[in-house]
Design goal:
607 residues, alpha+beta, Jelly Rolls, 3 domains, 8-stranded parallel beta barrel, 6-stranded antiparallel sheet, 12 helices, 29% strand, GH, beta-galactosidase activity, glycosidase, Beta-galactosidase, hydrolase
């Protein structure tokens, strides 16, 4: 193994514990015994902590012997200058320990970049706001990474197998071969892990192409593949380049994620199992990505960019995984379980209990702008609108106000570079919605000054590719026809950090006179159980359940229902708050089945 006797090793065998996983002659071993890693991705940050053990058991029932998870830096340290948090939902060591208690090994993928369709690929917005070359050996980047690793890596190190823990492998960065070619960066990450106590197997993971392999691998470190199909071709490439290494598929995409405005991606059971069989037939170890997807709670969903067009990811991260978003064991679960050779009694139910379907009225309490202004935030003034980064804001909204004089007649408000969606109001009246593809809003002037308010919403930070770290807000000037509007007041609205008191202030800022704003629904529950929330007639907004920000909804689909796990509910009265940016519907529905929209077989990455 690279940590003991491979070329390029920096660890002294006599002082370093032997890693659990090793290899010889292309065969993977665990403590010297031939071994195949059968792993599944399950992210602690996408599953309510009271459900961690249940979901881990479902992985074990699937026939897996290993769990793998990313570690999102921004989830643990969203604010610059504050110590990272590792308590509650962020208690990584508790999650690892639970996996070990359930008999699973653990593979950790600490990044610092993780992709994972997670906001900013896991990098904190306070870091990407700076003038820094991301994912490189730029000291402005590696300095903060070192400080983060000083906090994180020792926690992983003490959960390694030699210390009685479950961690058997740690990934060096993540799919770097599809991003950059800084030859010093990956070796630096590898050294940073070793220096902080990692003694288990280190590996890289990249797509099976020459280009990705060239930039994404490190001499003396196991090279693993990420793929959705054609494992035979991947095996041949890796065998040619690394003839002595075992074939390891660090991500096998047996499903796919969704963007707002697209269809719900699925992969047929036959297709998924056929490729799994082929990986095993090639002698490979494999990790199902995802085994259980979970949920992008709050505002953590990321985004992609296609030819400059933003593709925000939906709240659900079901990913058509064998274990569904709510834990249900799907047909894909049972077929894969058979393919993996698992037998015996299942320890978990096929599905968790659910509340009976019902409807409750939505009571419109306050208009959008008055409700937002009721939660006081620091304001800044300047000649230009302040961006999210200038305001120190990761996610949520920014309210911008100016008072331009609009000549009499028809004119156009132009948002020259809006990221990502903006509600435009004139003297308190909504006059349009703007985005990058539709930046112009018509306005009729009277020859007087108008109170121009622009509410800009971040729909998700890009998590993959060269646009990672792209800033949010109004990045270009606002025009009236061709004339730039100056003199702005900018107010950050950190919705992800709102407390129950903030919600009470917002919903008490009535009366409501427009179609948008804040609404409240209350429901009495005898015994908490899972449910699925739908908002028929509503257009676009956010939902809080008993003060917890569940996520975003949007009538462009594909997702119709939001999964609400039982631990978010309580016996007795429960309060649902809805922030609607466009037009509020009359009711909140509780459904007993998820609805993720019309489906589409995802074939691009597979066939």
């Amino acid at each position: 193994m690279i940590e003991t006797n491979r070329p390029g090793n920096t660890v002294t065998p006599s002082t370093t514990p032997s890693p659990a996983l090793g290899w010889s002659d292309s065969q993977l071993h665990r403590h010297g015994v031939p071994h195949r890693v059968l792993s599944g991705a399950l992210h602690y940050f996408r599953v309510h902590p009271q459900l961690w053990r249940d979901r881990i058991r479902r992985l074990a029932d699937l026939g897996l012997n290993t769990l793998d998870t990313y570690v999102p830096w921004n989830f643990h340290q969203p604010h610059a200058g504050r110590a990272p948090r590792f308590d509650g939902w962020r208690d990584l060591e508790a999650f690892i320990a639970l996996a070990g208690e359930e008999g699973l090994d653990v593979v950790l993928r600490p990044g610092p970049f993780i992709c994972a369709e997670w906001s900013n690929g896991g990098l904190p917005a306070w870091l990407t706001a700076r003038d820094v070359v991301l994912r490189s050996s730029d000291p402005a980047y590696t300095g903060p990474v070192e400080r983060w690793f000083d906090e994180l890596i020792p926690r992983i190190a003490r959960q390694q197998t030699h210390a009685g823990g479950a961690v058997v492998a740690v990934q060096v960065e993540n799919e770097y071969g599809s991003y950059g070619d800084d030859g010093a960066y990956l070796p630096w990450i590898r050294s940073a892990l070793l220096e902080r106590g990692i003694t288990e197997l280190l590996f890289t993971a990249d797509g099976p192409t020459e280009l990705m392999h060239d930039a994404g691998t490190v001499p003396g470190t196991l090279a693993a593949a990420t793929l959705g199909s054609k494992p035979e071709a991947a095996r041949a490439l890796f065998a040619k380049r690394r003839p002595d290494e075992p074939f390891v598929v660090a991500e096998y995409w047996n499903g796919w994620f969704d963007h707002w405005g697209e269809r719900h991606h699925v992969r047929s059971v036959d297709s998924a199992v056929r490729t799994l069989d082929a990986i095993i037939g090639e002698g490979g170890s494999v990790s199902l990505y995802m085994a259980h997807g979970g949920t992008n709670f709050g505002l953590w969903a990321g985004a992609n960019a296609d030819r400059g067009r933003l593709q925000p990811t939906i709240t659900s991260y079901d990913s058509d995984a064998p274990i569904a978003e709510d834990g249900t064991l799907t047909a894909k679960f049972h077929a894969m379980r058979a393919a993996l050779g698992a037998t015996g009694q299942l320890r978990v139910p096929e599905r968790m209990p659910v509340l009976p379907p019902t409807q409750v009225p939505l009571t419109h309490r306050a208009d959008l702008i008055s409700g937002l202004r009721a939660v006081r935030t620091p304001e800044s003034t300047g000649p230009r609108p302040a961006t999210f980064e200038q305001l120190g804001l990761d996610a949520g909204m920014v309210l911008l106000t100016a008072h331009p004089k609009i000549p009499t007649g028809a004119h156009t408000i132009v948002l020259t570079d809006v990221r990502d969606r903006a509600i435009v109001l004139a003297d308190g009246v909504p006059i349009g919605v703007a985005d990058a593809e539709h930046p112009e809003i018509p306005i009729n002037g009277t020859g007087a000054a108008v109170r121009l308010e622009i509410l800009v919403e971040n729909l998700g930070r890009i998590n993959y590719g060269p646009l990672i770290g792209q800033h949010k807000g109004l990045l270009g000037p606002v025009l009236v026809d061709r004339r730039i509007v100056h003199g702005w007041t900018s107010s950050p609205i950190a919705l992800a950090e709102w407390t129950p008191d903030d919600l009470r202030l917002a919903t008490a800022a009535g009366p409501a006179s427009t179609g948008a704003g804040f609404a409240v629904a209350t429901m009495h529950i005898e015994e908490p159980a899972d449910t699925f929330l739908a908002l028929p007639g509503s257009v676009h907004g956010l939902v809080w359940v008993n003060g917890f920000l569940l996520g975003r909804y949007w009538d462009i689909g594909p997702q119709v229902t939001l999964y609400c796990p039982a631990p978010l509910l309580r016996t007795g009265e429960n309060t649902i708050v809805v922030l609607e940016t466009d037009r509020l519907g009359p009711v909140l529905e509780l459904r007993d089945q998820p609805e993720l929209g019309p489906t589409e077989e995802y074939v691009e990455e597979f066939d």
